[in-house]
Amino acid sequence: MSTTDVRSLQGHYAGFASRLVAVAIDLSIVAAITVVVSWASFSLLEYVAIDIRDCPPLDSGVGGGALLCFGIQWVGIIAGGTFPFVYTLFFWTTTGQTPGKAVMGLRIVRLDGHPMTLWTGIVRLVGYSISMATAGLGFLLALSDNRRQALHDKIAHTCVIYSWDAHGDPNLQKLFPRLFG
Amino acid sequence: MARQALIGLLFEAYGAASRGASAAGRLAATTGRFWGSVFDPVLRSRVFAPVRMPSEYLLERGAQELERWARVGRAEEQRSRLVARRIMMTPVEDIVAYLRTNPELEQLVRTQAQSLLDELADDPRLTSVILSQGDRYVDHLHDHPEAVQELVRGQSAGLAEEVANSVRQRTVSADILLERFVRTVLRRRPREDLPDPPREVQDQAQPHRTHSDEHD
C-alpha cells in the first residue's frame, strides 16, 4: 500500500494520528459521563442528607449512617476508577470499536482475522497499561512499525484498521505535494 | 410660420437639387459613354498621341488629388463624430452624476418607496394572502410531520457525516505526515509502502461481510 495513494485504504492499518484523535474522543466521553454521573449522585445524596465528602468517623457514634457514607464513598471511588476500563473493554469486545474509534472509522481486529474476545480485550488492556507505564513510548511504536502496531497491539496480537472508505484529504495533498509525494 | 416655411423650402430645395444633380450625372455618364465609343478610336490614334500623354497625366493627378480629399474627408468625419459624441455625452453624464448625488432626489425616492411599503403593509388583501399561505404551510407541516422529521434528520445526519469525513480525511493525511516526520527524525529511509494486511484482517473492516459471502 502506497502511503500516497488516493485509492481507498479501507481494511488497511490505521495510523497514529487517527488513533490519537479516537482516544481523545473516548477520554472526553468518559470524562463527560463521569462528571454527569458524579453530579447526579452528589445531588441525590444531598437530597437524602448524605455528604460523602465529609463522612463522620466510624467511631463517632453515628453508627449506620457513617458506615453507609463510607460504603457509598468507596463504591464511588471503585466505580469511578474502573469505569474507563469497563467502558473500553465493553466496546472492544462487543463491536471492536469504542465510540471514539467509531467516529474516526477505526476497528480493532485480531491478526488472525477473528473478532475480538473478552480474553484478547483483557490482554490488550494490560498491554495498554504497560504502554502507558513506558511514558507513552509503547504508543509511539505505532509510528514506526510496519503494521502500525503499538506495544499493546503486539502483546494482544491485534491491530487497528480503517473501517471506512479511508483516503487522505486531497486538498492537503495538493497543498503539500512534496510532503505527500 | 414663415420660419417653418423657410426651413421647409430649404429641405425641399436640397431634395430637388439632389434629384436634379443625380439626373444630370446619369445623363452626363450616358453621353460620355456614347461620345467615348465614337471618339475612342480617333483619340487613341498616333495623331493624338502628343495630346493624349499630358491629358492622361492630368487625369492621374486629378484622381490622386481626389483620393487625398476623400482621405481628409473620412478623417474629418470621424473627428466630427467624436466631437459630437463628447458634446452629447458630457452633459448627460453630468446630469446622471448630479441626480445620483442629489439628496433631494434620494429623499423623494425614499419617500415614495416608504409610502408604497406602508400601503402594502396596510393592505388587507396582501395580509390575507400571506396569512392564508402561511396557514397552508403550517397545515401541510402538521399533516406530514414525518416528512419534516425526515428532512431535519437527513440534514443533521448529512452534516454530521460530512464533518466526520472531513476530520477522518485530515487525520489519514496526518497519519502519513507524522510517520514521515518520525522517520526523518530517526534518520530512517522514507517508507514508500506499507504491507497490505492479510485478507482476513481486511475483511473485518466490513463487519457484515463474511468469508461465505465471497464464495457466493
Q: Gist?
A:
The complex is a heterodimer of chains A (181) and B (216). With 181 residues, chain A is mainly alpha-helical.
Q: What does the average pLDDT of chain B come to?
A: 80
Strand order of the largest sheet of chain A: 1-2
- Give the largest chain-chain interface (CB within 8 Å): A-B, 47 and 38 residues
> How much helical structure, as a percent, in the residues of chain B?
over 70%
Report the end-to-end length of chain A measured between terminal Cα atoms.
14 Å
What are the salient characteristics of this protein?
heterodimer, A: 181 residues, mainly alpha, two-stranded antiparallel ribbon, 2 strands, elongated, disordered N terminus, B: 216 residues, disordered C terminus
Write the layout of secondary structure elements.
The complex is a heterodimer of chains A (181) and B (216).
Chain A: H1 16-47, H2 64-94, H3 99-104, E1 106-110, H4 118-133, H5 137-140, H6 151-156, E2 158-162, H7 170-175, H8 177-180
Antiparallel strand pairs in A: 1-2
Helix pairs in contact in A: 1-2, 2-4
Chain B: H1 2-43, H2 49-100, H3 103-122, H4 124-143, H5 145-185, H6 199-203, H7 211-215
Structure in words:
The complex is a heterodimer of chains A (181) and B (216). Chain A is elongated and about 75 Å long. The two termini of chain A are 14 Å apart. Chain A has eight helices and two strands; from the N terminus they run H-H-H-E-H-H-H-E-H-H. Chain A has helices spanning 16-47, 64-94, 99-104, 118-133, 137-140, 151-156, 170-175, 177-180; strands at 106-110, 158-162. The N and C termini of chain B lie far apart (106 Å). Among the domains of chain B are: 9-111, no CATH class; 144-190. Chains A and B meet through helix 1, strand 2 and helix 7 of A and helix 5 and helix 6 of B.
